[in-house]
Amino acid sequence: MLRQDYELVVGLEVHAQVSTQSKLFSGSSTAFGAEPNTQTCPIDLGMPGVLPVLNDKVVEAAVRTGLALNAHINKTSVFARKNYFYPDLPKGYQISQYDLPIVEHGRMTVDLEDGSSKEIGITRIHIEEDAGKSVHDIGDEKVSHVDLNRAGVPLMEIVSEPDIRTAEEAGAYVKKLRAILRFLEVCDGNMEQGSMRCDANVSVRKRGETKFGTRTEIKNLNSIRNIVRAIEYEAERQVEAIENGEKIYQETRLWDAGKNITRSMRGKENAHDYRYFPDPDLLPLRLKEDDIEAWKKTLPELPDQLKDRFMRDYSLNNYDAAVLSGSRESARFFEAALEGGRDPKLVANWIMVELFGALNKSGKDITESPVSPAQLGQLVGLIEKNTISGKIAKTVFEEMLQSSADPEEIVKAKGLVQITDTGAIEKAIDDIMAANADQVADFRSGNERVYGWFVGQVMKATQGKANPAMLNDLLRKKLQG
Question: How many domains does the chain have?
């Protein structure tokens, strides 16, 4: 927990792989999981005399992302050479954008767990190519190898303003950004496969100060959980160092998820260290207003718009609407389950509590749900018609998770139809009261706690099938004499 007299300042750089079949400047495949060095060509390898050819689908993806983030689209942008050496960067430079990026000055609102929201600025989005990958210590070999399949893969680097003040805000930002990219279908957001990675720039300062502290950059964070944990650790490390009279150095650090620590990797480079200059092989990128407007018309209903509609049309609260609009798949599941006039709040509760809980436990995504939207809607319908109680519904739901059977079939096969016959419930109550006169007297003398015992006994006698509302109404009347 960060000390109260310090403030955290974070800016995030998210690298999102654009969902294209070919690379940024060549026709090589971008498919994941291929054998090392099988998806390259002379352009990717930086051979002499080759010329890059821009993939126009990447341009479209960047513009649509900028529009979705309420950003300004620059009609003229320039590709530059970012010069640095790594074994997995064959050309010795990376083609990127520097002082004239394709997108600038955006903003995004994130929802936080306490129900509040915060707007975070987007500094820029620029297009660049990925480098290859160094692979170390394969099997018993104590040597390093280079896999250039990723060399030239198209990336959008989305850079936030240093507006983030807590690790929770950072996690919410990346989660919301990933949702937007998935809604746009410009990036699959798969952090484990490396198609979305995050670098966190972290600094601390005393509360009330306006000058930023010295920042460190934590590289290649590959999950939202690791982003949150790494920022929390690094902030505490910096505060402890400052309090001990130590100096914070501008450096690049790596997150060790096994030890829950950051560790120094190298001194942090500044822009002048990369010797940026316009790439002579690529003309300035000039966009037409007609193309921008045409791409704007292709934007889908985005998370914020979905959330507002769910609140307006289905009377959901802000939290429920935000959760269900967090992914296109969950939003589609929710609306499909509503077909037939189901109660939106009841459907939302079953999805967020029971379904999401079961899926998280089994490590599955909603697209892998063994219960279909129609089946969940049927289950809610059985509750609404008083065919089954909420408690019985949970038993039915567990069976649905195992067998994927329709809830009506399960209820019929197991004889789980709720008892709504007042005569049958009254008889069960009378039998329990007659056999437990002492407990009846105890209740009537003021011991309210014994009431729950009677409820349990009646439910046991009816095999849990008594309608809870009817049971409570009849039981209380009879116990009160």
Answer: 3
- For residue 1, being part of any structural domain is answered with no
Helix axes 289-296, 56-68, angle to 10 degrees: 60
Same domain, 19 and 153: yes
Q: How does pLDDT run along the chain (481 residues), one tens digit per residue?
A: 788 899 999 999 999 999 999 999 999 999 988 999 999 999 999 999 999 999 999 999 999 999 999 999 999 999 999 998 888 999 999 999 999 999 999 999 998 888 888 999 999 999 999 999 988 877 777 788 999 999 999 999 999 999 999 999 999 999 999 999 999 999 999 998 889 999 999 999 999 999 999 999 999 899 999 999 999 999 999 999 999 999 999 999 999 999 999 999 877 666 567 899 999 999 999 999 999 999 999 999 999 999 999 999 999 999 899 999 999 999 999 999 999 899 999 999 999 999 999 999 999 999 999 999 999 999 999 999 888 888 889 999 999 999 999 999 998 887 777 666 677 777 878 788 888 888 878 788 888 888 888 888 877 887 777 777 777 778 888 788 7
- C-alpha distances in Å from residue 194, one per residue of 170, 272, 315, 359: 19, 28, 38, 23
Domain that holds residue 436: 422-480
- Write the DSSP symbol of residue 32: T
Residues 40 and 91 placed together within one structural domain of the fold: yes
**First-to-last C-alpha distance (Å) of the chain:** 57
Paired with 124 in beta bridges are: 104, 159
- The three-class DSSP label of residue 373 is helix
**DSSP letter for each residue of 294-316:** HHHTT----HHHHHHHHHHHH--
Amino acid at 434: A
Radius of gyration for the alpha carbons in the chain, expressed in angstroms and rounded: 29
What does 151-202 look like in DSSP terms, one character per residue?
A: TT-EEEEEEE-S-B-SHHHHHHHHHHHHHHHHHHTS----TTTTSEEEEEEE
